[in-house]
């Protein structure tokens, strides 16, 4: 029952997502040659707090090969010209409720392989979204995204496709290969497929959705088309 949110709870999560979207748009302007992962992470924290919000979790900032790590801890890696992958995973907590969003952008022109990875993750998310409806098995939604990624010759992501979100950024139910949950109207959850290749990099695209009127309604609104900075 806790997984099904009231209209008031959904509105609070929506407001937290609006903070995340605003911070993301601002942080793109801070990305430049020479900035470190730690510096960019600290800037995300500053911008979230500037909106009178707190953190859902410590931001993930990963440059280049570091984007392979699912939960990379920001370090002193400096951004170089044509560095490639920049993975940004951030969330705000406002009025007791959390948001969660990941975007992967490219610093410099993306290679053909990088574009294919990105487009594959994007299409996997779209396929999962199209399957979401009331009483749908969470397992099925994970499977369609996972199967599409492997059909394109990439490794399966080593985490669930998504998770519930509310007062905690990771709430009880999951959209995963072992999930026995049914999706129901009023549930709020993420859909976050990814491709991670060791010693190369990775892409994750994550949005927060509410299932309403049998359709997934995105609460995170930031553009997720391929972006080259």
Question: What is this structure's SSE topology?
Answer:
Elements: H1 7-27, H2 37-50, E1 54-55, E2 60-63, E3 84-90, E4 92-94, E5 97-98, E6 101-107, H3 112-131, H4 138-151, E7 162-164, E8 171-175, E9 188-191, E10 194-197, E11 201-204, E12 207-212, E13 215-218
Distance between the termini: 43 Å
Secondary-structure element pattern, one letter each: HHEEEEEEHHEEEEEEE
Question: How would you characterize the largest beta sheet?
Answer: 3 strands, antiparallel
What CATH architecture label applies? Alpha-Beta Complex
Strand proportion, as a percent range, falls in 15-25%
Residue-averaged pLDDT: 97
Helix share bin: 25-40%
Provide a count of the helices. Answer: 4
Globally, the shape reads globular
Task: Count up the domains.
Answer: 1
CATH superfamily: Creatinase/methionine aminopeptidase superfamily
CATH topology title: Creatine Amidinohydrolase
Give the strand order, joined by hyphens, for the main sheet: 1-4-5
* CATH class descriptor: Alpha Beta
**Low-confidence sequence ranges:** none
Give the number of DSSP strands: 13
Task: Please state the CA-atom Rg, rounded to the nearest Å.
Answer: 17 Å
Structural class: alpha+beta
Written description of the protein model:
The structure is a single chain. The chain has 229 residues and is α+β, with helices and mostly antiparallel strands. The chain contains 4 helices and 13 strands. It has helices at residues 7-27, 37-50, 112-131, 138-151, and strands at residues 54-55, 60-63, 84-90, 92-94, 97-98, 101-107, 162-164, 171-175, 188-191, 194-197, 201-204, 207-212, 215-218. The strands form 5 sheets. Strands 1-4-5 form a 3-stranded antiparallel beta sheet.
């Amino acid at each position: 029952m806790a997984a099904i949110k009231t209209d008031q709870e959904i509105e609070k999560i929506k407001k937290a997502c609006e903070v995340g979207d605003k911070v993301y748009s601002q942080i793109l302007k801070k990305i430049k040659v020479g900035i470190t992962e730690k510096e960019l992470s600290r800037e995300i924290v500053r911008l979230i707090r500037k909106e009178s919000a707190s953190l859902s979790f410590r931001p993930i900032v990963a440059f280049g090969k570091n984007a392979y790590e699912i939960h990379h801890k920001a370090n002193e890696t400096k951004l170089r010209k044509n560095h490639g992958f920049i993975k940004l995973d951030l969330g705000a907590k406002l009025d007791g409720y959390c948001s969660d969003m990941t975007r992967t952008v490219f610093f410099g022109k993306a290679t053909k392989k990088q574009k294919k990875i990105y487009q594959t993750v994007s299409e996997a998310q779209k396929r999962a979204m199209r399957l979401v409806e009331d009483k749908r098995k969470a397992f099925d939604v994970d499977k369609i995204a996972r199967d599409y990624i492997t059909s394109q010759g990439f490794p399966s992501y080593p985490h669930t496709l998504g998770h519930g979100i509310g007062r905690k950024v990771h709430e009880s139910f999951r959209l995963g290969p072992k999930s026995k949950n049914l999706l129901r109207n009023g549930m709020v959850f993420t859909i976050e497929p990814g491709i991670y290749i060791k010693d190369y990099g990775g892409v994750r695209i994550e949005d927060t959705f509410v299932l309403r009127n049998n359709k997934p309604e995105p609460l995170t609104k930031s553009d997720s088309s391929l972006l080259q900075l």
